[in-house]
Design goal:
about 210 residues; alpha/beta; Rossmann fold; 2 domains; two-stranded antiparallel ribbon; globular
Length: about 210
Amino acid sequence: MHRILIVEDSTPLAEALERTLALEGHHVLLATRAQEALARAKHEPPDLVVLDLGLPDRDGYHVLRELRGRGEECPVLILSARSLESDKVEGFRLGADDYVTKPFGALELMARISALLRRARRGAATGALPQGSMRPLADDELRARYGLTARQITVARLVAEGCTNAEIASRLGLSFFTVRNHAEQMMAKLQVSNRSAVAPLLLEPM
């Protein structure tokens, strides 16, 4: 059973999500305001956060920024009516793991939540390197070292997380074929032939 925090000011939607997730065996926490969400996450750390952007006190970006700022690494799925690419890019820049626009299909949302929880479990299980032994290369270092464009760097980081081209296309609001082209060009610059070889090239020993 996972603990999932739903941050949503629409009571009917929040309760519908709570019922659906409870049927899947999850323990659900609800928050309708940014400060309430941050307090709940501090005292009952969630395994995943479903985060609306349009909250009455502060927007969801504030919640995301605060969570990441205090070291919360659980997956965050933004669930918002805002569908502009700039909104999605800002969410991912601040540390969101997925972005779903309203209205949404319940089956798709549950599938995305399951995928994020699986990925988090896999990361915890393989907990690869001792903390502090490796550091991620910054964007400017990746540009200088491999000649990657900004979009190729974004795609590379998502590939390193284990995302498929279809998942990346959905997260970035791009077509599948555009993402495939970016991924192929990125891998050619990194001189790797399979996606599993991407992640190690984005790190270096400290």
